[in-house]
Amino acid sequence: MIMLIYWSLPSILFILALFSFVSNRKHLLSMLLSLEYIVLMLFFMLFMYMNMMNYENYFCMMFLTFSVCEGALGLSILVSMIRTHGNDYFQSFSIM
């Protein structure tokens, strides 16, 4: 019973983050923030799992490092899109 309560909050927050990512498709910045929230919830669930199974937290630190790199790449894409197109709307881009 305690395990259900222990995992219910991060699971609900992860589902809300996925819903936020799917519903916000107008601006790139809001999509990047939703992705970072998803990564943060995944990190929280991974950290809880590693602590429950008495594993070392080395993999958590690797995951955190890669998520920081992912955030930096997302921000660099945002800056380059704003410099080339003037905004971060997805409707202003053409496929061609």
Any overview of this molecule?
- This protein is 78% helix and 0% strand.
- It has three helices and no strands.
- It has helices at 2-23, 28-52, 58-85.
- The radius of gyration is 17 Å and the shape is elongated.
- The N and C termini lie far apart (54 Å).
- This is NADH-ubiquinone oxidoreductase chain 4L.
- It is found in: Mitochondrion inner membrane; Mitochondrion membrane.
- One of its GO terms (molecular function) is oxidoreductase activity, acting on NAD(P)H.
- Its main location: mitochondrion.
N-to-C SSE series? HHH
Low-confidence stretches: none
Largest sheet composition: none
Which percent band covers the strand fraction? Answer: under 5%
Distance between the termini: 54 Å
Mean pLDDT across the residues is 84
Number of DSSP-assigned strands: 0
Total count of helical runs of at least 4 residues = 3
Helical residue percent band: over 70%
Q: What is the general shape?
A: elongated
Radius of gyration (Å): 17 Å
Enzyme class: translocase
Protein name: NADH-ubiquinone oxidoreductase chain 4L
GO molecular function: NADH dehydrogenase (ubiquinone) activity; oxidoreductase activity, acting on NAD(P)H
Main location: mitochondrion
